[in-house]
Amino acid sequence: MQAGIVSCGVYIPRLRIKREEYQRAWGYSSRWVEEKSVAGFDEDSITMSVEAASNALMNANLDVSEIDAVYFASTSAPYAEKQNASTIATALGCKSDTATLDATSSTRSGTSALLSCLDFVASGRGRTGLVAAGDCPLGDPTGTLEHQLGAAAAAVVVGREQAAVKVEGSFSIASETLGERFRRDGQSYVTSVDLGPYHERAVDQVVTSCMKGMMDRLHRSPKDYAWLVLQGLDDGKAMGLSKKLGFEDSKIAPSMISAKIGDVGAASPLLALSKLLESTLQGQRMILCSYGPGGGADALSLSIEGEMKTVSGAAYADYLARKEYIDYMTYMKVRRIIAKG
Amino acid sequence: MAYVSIPTYSRSIPQRYALIGARCKSCGTVNFPRGVNCLKCGKVLESEPVKLSGRGKIYCFTTVSRGGAPPEFATQQKFVGSYPVAVVELDEGPKIVAQMVDCKAEQLKIDLKVESTFRRIYEDDGMIRYGIKFRPARAS
């Protein structure tokens, strides 16, 4: 049984902070992030996921009663214990016999949750599933990682017959790299040990073997693909790697999202995919690859076979345009960083 | 507002999270929140659940500033300043009180079209109390 993507939905919170605020506060900023989105005082990865999921259902013109599974992906779930996906299912008004799952602890949990949901539908365990990835990770305010961390959510409805995007195959890599982005149990802040070239080689090797593994499995080459989504690493590394693998810059450029919203963790692969699917054409193929620092990568080969609809006002560009700038002190308060011990 | 215990809050979760109301089987009126008797016909409420659209308009509004926030919203007021609160008349009829988000207080006016959004309301007993707030409706 085949499973694919029926619709997508996105959510970007309204607040933004510009690079200049970080320059003023700390004297440095991330090279790739001009401004980033910020979750409001009353927002978190659950509330943002509910918004994205509602948009995905609206775009598919689906009633929530048809959803058999809700899978949630995040590195910043509000509860470390007590399922988060079931809160999302309840907020959406899903039926009580909905299958739920939290995929956490990696920026690639967005694609991992998507792969699991595709299996859920393909196996016949359910007819239609929903994957919602929302993330608003926090870095140590005194560290260099913090500036790049943004906030957003994306959701994907997974189904069979109605699927506009077919999943042709996938490939995953499990790896073990120490010192890349991590957060120990009980810690609030994401951190990393800056090992420059050592980590760059690790990313290179994992992403290359993941994408090559997938293309080899399907007897494909980069020329078979119109688009590449490569998330979980900064824009510079992603551009460099895609070129090395044989993809022209024009294939990856439209899915680069971090310059305007920052690095949105586990939400980034599905958000970049959603943005791209709003404008790509039937008959084209794309690769969705996401890297999880320290622990591997997922790659999916997608073929666009039908039309994806986006209800007006709920497109990626609509959310990008809807914004309100805040200063660094307001940011510290809104994200409650100032009140952390 | 006073302390709402976890059991009390939990009983109304479908209403608070997903705007599930009760349609009276006798007269068809949508009751929200669900009470014992129908608000319109007064009969003991026998009802079927109905999911409200979340769309409505502002009936009246105010701003809550320093010293005015109930205890559960005092932290929010301290961290983000004054916040707007509105009585929203939903398309299905019921009126509910909720915070307005993603807008400036100056933008608010009576009859402004609004839509619901799922947000954190406050925290108590170490738990996050989620629920509904409203924002100006998206043009569509």
What does this structure look like?
- The complex is a heterodimer of chains A (341) and B (140).
- Chain A is of the alpha/beta class.
- Chain A folds into two domains: 4-164 and 315-339, Peroxisomal Thiolase, Chain A, domain 1 (3-Layer(aba) Sandwich), CATH 3.40.47.10; 166-304, Thiolase/Chalcone synthase (Peroxisomal Thiolase, Chain A, domain 1, 3-Layer(aba) Sandwich), CATH 3.40.47.
- Chain A contains eleven helices and twelve strands.
- Chain A has a nine-stranded mixed β-sheet with strand order 5-4-6-7-1-8-11-10-9, sandwiched between helices.
- In chain A, a hairpin with a 3-residue loop joins strand 10 and strand 11.
- The model of chain A has no long low-confidence stretch (mean pLDDT 95).
- Classes of the chains: A alpha/beta (341), B mainly beta (140).
- At the A-B interface, helix 2, helix 3 and helix 11 of A face helix 2, helix 3, strand 7 and strand 8 of B.
